[in-house]
Please model this.
Amino acid sequence: MSTILVFDLKGAMAQFKKFDTNSSSLTYIAPPRTVIAGLVAGILGYEKDNHYEVFSPENANIAVSVIGWPRKIIQTINYMFAKNKTDLNLSKGRTQIPVEFLFPSLDKHELTYRIFFRHADPNLQYDLKQRLKNQSYAYPPYLGLTEMLGKISWIEEATCEQITADDPIPIHTLSPIEQLKENSVQFNVHSDQLFYQKERMPRFFNGNRYLQETMSYLIERSGRIIAQPKEKYFQVQYQGKTENILFM
Model:
């Protein structure tokens, strides 16, 4: 039995740019692992590009749930056309780029992502817990782009334990497809909101800020899929409920 920090990242809008798009800036439906690592690093006060090894998958366990399915809207943004510093006087004019944004569903007023985080260094995890509880952030939280400031709601430090599944179970977080047993996903064909999405996301950068690994995740609109993990999964107990999570 160990502990894990549970908190919500909320905001009016978000943009988690897909790494494999070019002319149009499309967004993931949820923050990738790299975004959450950067968020935590900012809260703790790490300088830019100095946190990749600290929050590598070997050191940090991260999982995320989508609470309320977001809407996607594409807007065309005016950018300054600049290829070098001499173009920053607008001498090359402007260029328009389509950008995809996330907004909350019409019955909600903000996006909400539930984050599960634990670290191999207990001192780092304790420092983060205190900062989250006291809202004492070195850098303000945001949702993908710095212009989209967010807020954090502390939930609690929950208990978690590793369990082996002999049958399909509900999984409440983004599910790495390679961690699911083949043909074990159970589809509720009687649901009128049957919607599954696959997202290929960056997993972590190395110390030179090169993308080290990507991973594909399965997401379900209600925030829960039913499948059998290949190996042990984590069961988290908080606020009187139990949720099953897989780390990204």
Notes: The longest strand covers residues 150-163.
